[in-house]
Amino acid sequence: MTADRPVLVVAEQLDAAADMVVDRLNRRGVPVLRYDSADFPQNLTLAATHAAGGAGWRGVLDHGSRSVHLEDVRAVYYRRPGRPVIAGAVPEPYAAWARDQADAALLNVVAALPVRWINNPHDDRAASHKPQQLVCAAACGLRVPRSIITNDPDAARAFGEEVKGPLICKPVLGGRLDSGRGRPLMIATHPLDPDDIDDSIRLTAHYIQEAVPKSHEVRLTVVDDRLFACSITATTQAALTDWRTDPGGLTFGTTPVPESVAAGVRRYLASYGLVFGAFDFAVTPQGDWVFFECNPAGTWAWVESHTGLPIAAAHADYLQGAQ
Amino acid sequence: MLRPPPLVTTSVEGVTWDEGRQLNVKPDGTPWHTEPQAASCTDTNQDGKGDDVNDPYYAPAS
């Protein structure tokens, strides 16, 4: 591997995690081409060819001030880019069609590069959905909360009777709820009183779990088998239910990871073909770690910022091929 | 019951893009990422809008 083979960094411009990784690569002399898919096709030019024989796309990705040959790319860091933006002169519905063409072309030509990835977006997608995550986590030996997904109020009530304890309800799928008033809403985890279960459950699927008693929570960031565990201790009831809802009610630290949990998360990532994962765990007062979710493109810049854990360096090691 | 979403932001005042270094810098030229970063899953691209929808969790279930 020659020293000047570039790393592609695909992310939005205002992304501190991408900045951290690029900074590390710069210091190591590894060339970088960083782009946001939203730059395509207006400010990013792709010319990729595939021969009749010999597998692999070849060609140029040109971002104006710098360009790369696809066949030279060393690795790709793919982190929540935007979607292609079509010139305003193109009216709908043609603009939407053109955006889908641009999206599919750029993403899938780059995703076909046989290089190191954090993470290939196709692997991310398969790993993104909570119902499958729960199955995978349990199969990998991790403890998970008792859960029900249902639109049947009787089944929800029966689940509550089986749990015989506090319940929470959380979205099956992330994203925002745009009520048309102000900012789109983030739907957080919230306590669910079994007495409040009614026929409104029939309106859509609901994801209900036993409320896991928490000593604290852990954001466990894993990069190529290296584990970086950030403890999150809530000082308010809101933060205890969902730490994302009360940023002022949190303290951060580092914590060792039990070997059984470390083995479980490594099996989990391997099963999805992922190099990176941002796991959320609750740690019970008895010290048991309970898996909630794993975001394959989760945020981690704040973890390094609060704890000093060398997560960016671990990314750079993998992308550079140092290990 | 819906509440306004918490939006945790990291300041980007005075931050500009450094094309040569391929990262964001503060007015004195130091990398912006060396500033304290808010513990946020609600403003992942730090644009202060809290409307990030490119998270794979948002991928359509189909």
Describe the protein.
Chain A contains 9 helices and 18 strands. In chain A, strand 3 (45-49) and strand 4 (58-62) form a beta hairpin. Chain A is globular. Chain A has 323 residues and is α+β, with helices and mostly antiparallel strands. With 62 residues, chain B is largely without helices or strands. Chain B has a domain at 15-47. Chain B contains no helices and 2 strands. A two-stranded antiparallel sheet of chain B has the order 1-2. In chain B, a hairpin with a 4-residue loop joins strand 1 (16-18) and strand 2. The chains are: A alpha+beta (323), B little secondary structure (62). Chains A and B meet through helix 1, strand 2, helix 3, strand 10 and strand 11 of A and loops of B.
Shape of chain B: elongated
Strand portion of chain A, in percent? 25-35%
Which structural class matches the secondary elements of chain B?
little secondary structure
Average pLDDT metric of chain A: 93
User: Major sheet of chain A: size, sense and barrel closure?
Assistant: 5 strands, antiparallel
Task: State the largest interface.
Answer: A-B, 59 and 43 residues
One letter per element, helices H and strands E, the order of chain A comes to: EHEEEEEHEHHEHEEEEEEEHEHEEHH
Report the mean per-residue pLDDT of chain B as an integer.
73
Could you estimate the helical fraction of the residues of chain B in percent? Answer: under 10%
Region (Disordered) (chain B): 18-62
Domain ATP-grasp (chain A): 134-320
Keywords (chain A): ATP-binding, Nucleotide-binding
GO molecular function (chain A): ATP binding; metal ion binding; ribosomal S6-glutamic acid ligase activity
Which terms would index this structure?
heterodimer, A: 323 residues, alpha+beta, Rossmann fold, Dna Ligase, domain 1, D-amino Acid Aminotransferase, Chain A, domain 1, 3 domains, 5-stranded antiparallel β-sheet, 4-stranded parallel β-sheet, 9 helices, 27% strand, globular, B: 62 residues, little secondary structure, two-stranded antiparallel sheet, 2 strands, 0% helix, 10% strand, ribosomal S6-glutamic acid ligase activity (chain A), MvdD-like_ATPgrasp (chain A), ATP-grasp ribosomal peptide maturase, SAV_5884 family (chain A), ATP-grasp (chain A)
